[in-house]
Amino acid sequence: MNNTNTSPWRLKSPFILASGSKARLRLLQDAGLCPSEIIPADIDETPKKKELPARYVYRIAKEKALAIAKQHPNKCILSADTVIAVGVRMIRKASTREEALENLKLLSGRRHRVITGFCVVKPDGSTITKTVTTFVIIKKLDNIDIDTILNSNQWQNVAGYQIEGMLSAVVRKTIGSFPNVVGLPIFEVTQVLRGIL
């Protein structure tokens, strides 16, 4: 990664992205926000007992950012975490086709929330942490819909689903930030970074 800050937003200093998500990196780059380094945080992401989805992503995003900040003091760090929520239930990343099938059945014909928490650690060590929620409505899925999505393997290595892939053909409506569903609420992130860098 080029350490030169080439942001057209004229950020005064670079930032480290504490995420290995290719989707998040692409969103940042498309918006003209290029991190100087990418250092994924390795933390325990196990939800706490009765932890609500919004509280979970808020906590995990902050813990990721602080973990990298300890290794890189006096740097600006950006981290994020995204979950899909149906009521108080969080849909986690599917590790098998069977789990992906159960996720699709749960989402079929229902409105759900995509919640992203993001955290920015300032060079002085203080933090700004926010959550952004987008509502997504998926049509009632038939067997062809389900088989097509599963056979695409686009459910692998993503938090629930990849909305910019095959699943986009069955999404009836999104209410709120579309980039948030991809993995990062880029408007809100840009406002925070421009305010401190």
Key traits:
197 residues; alpha/beta; Maf protein; 6 helices; 33% helix; globular; disordered N terminus
Task: Describe the fold and architecture.
Strands 1, 2, 3, 4, 5, 6 and 7 form a seven-stranded mixed β-sheet that branches. The protein is an alpha/beta fold and 197 residues long. Strand 3 and strand 4 form a beta hairpin. It has one domain (15-196): Maf protein (Alpha-Beta Complex). The longest helix has 19 residues, at 53-71. The chain has helices at 22-30, 53-71, 97-107, 143-152, 178-182, 186-196; strands at residues 15-17, 37-38, 76-86, 89-91, 111-121, 127-138, 171-175. 33% of the residues lie in helices and 24% in strands. It is built from six helices and seven strands; from the N terminus they run E-H-E-H-E-E-H-E-E-H-E-H-H. It is globular, with a radius of gyration of 17 Å.
Give the topology string: H per helix, E per strand.
EHEHEEHEEHEHH
Q: How many E strands?
A: 7
How much strand content do the residues show? 15-25%
Assembly type of the shown chains?
single chain
Please give the share of residues in helix: 25-40%
Q: Give the CATH topology.
A: Maf protein
Largest sheet: 7 strands, mixed
Structural class: alpha/beta
Mean pLDDT: 91
The CATH C-level name is Alpha Beta
Give the helix tally: 6
Query: Domains counted in the coordinates: how many?
Result: 1
Low-confidence runs (pLDDT<50, min 5 residues)? Answer: 1-5
From the N-terminal CA to the C-terminal CA, the straight-line distance is 19 Å
